[in-house]
Design brief:
single chain, thioether bond, 262 residues, binds fe (ii) ion, Jelly Rolls, metal-binding, three-stranded antiparallel sheet, globular, ferrous iron binding, 20% helix, alpha+beta, oxidoreductase, 7 helices
């Protein structure tokens, strides 16, 4: 099944009408109307594709290194329309190699870290998240962006939640689904699929994940598991391009309500 997404926030807004349906139902209904556009993908606006007379992202070879993966993602996201299945499959084809990403993997004993790897020409952010034993995120949303999560070391647990229906009253949030994402597997997430929390369930092993967010964002909403109450949180980077981010300059804003990884 093809999953076409427009490169703007309209997608997630459109998906809301399918919020009662399963993941595959959402994909089917959302992207069917875009199918004919995919067949005429040469109109994506990418100069190379126009010259070749057809869109060539499906011709990309499997990335053998993280650098290859980044190069391929740049080509894919140069298009106006992005195929979610293709991105997910392309990221799956990269087989994690510690040598590729060790310079970005920065751990903190107190909380998990977000480490920027590539800014994707403004179309996406690629980052590596490092999870010490038993560290986890808050329950959070994704600011109408598309999230691809690939485990590159260890394994993580993903808990899915529905959006709270009533912001005035307090209701404990309980996961509707819990799953494990193993090394080299890729998960897709966006606001229309709900909320999630990611954690390293291991008390003996670290975990490392590679995340792609498109479009990039620097604020999301986090939720109190006990009450369902929500608040805005700035997303911050522990490091950028392998170098520690100066303290107090992580989010580009001075007033950080609460720094949250995602
Ligand atoms: Fe997330």
């Amino acid at each position: 099944m093809s999953e076409e997404i427009m490169y703007n926030q309209q997608v997630c807004e459109e998906q809301t009408k399918y919020s009662e349906n399963s993941d595959s139902d959402i994909s089917d209904k959302l992207f069917n109307e875009e199918m004919d556009i995919e067949e005429h993908d040469v109109n994506c606006g990418n100069e190379e594709c126009i010259l070749n007379g057809r869109c060539n992202t499906n011709d990309l070879p499997a990335p053998s290194t993280l650098s290859d993966l980044i190069d391929g993602l740049h080509k894919i996201f140069a298009h106006q329309k992005i195929n979610v299945d293709f991105v997910r499959n392309y990221m799956s084809m990269y087989k994690s190699n510690h040598r590729d990403w060790k310079k970005f993997a920065k751990f903190d004993q107190h909380r998990y870290t977000r480490n920027l790897v590539d800014e994707g020409n403004g179309r996406f952010n690629l980052m590596i998240l490092c999870w010490n034993e038993a560290q986890g995120s808050s329950i959070h949303s994704h600011a109408n962006s598309h999230c691809f999560l690939k485990v590159i070391d260890g394994a993580v647990e993903e808990e899915l939640f529905q959006w709270p229906t009533d912001s005035e009253s307090e209701h404990a949030m309980t996961p509707v689904q819990i799953g494990t994402v193993k090394r080299n597997e890729v998960k897709y997430m966006c606001d229309e699929l709900g909320l999630h929390r990611v954690s390293n369930p291991s008390h003996t092993d670290k975990a490392v994940t590679l995340h792609l967010y498109s479009p990039p964002f620097n604020e999301c909403t986090i939720f109190d598991e006990r009450t369902g109450h929500q608040q805005k949180a700035q997303t911050t980077f522990w490091s950028k391009f392998g170098k520690r981010t100066p303290f107090g300059k992580t989010g580009g804003q001075c007033t950080i309500i609460e720094a949250e990884n995602n």
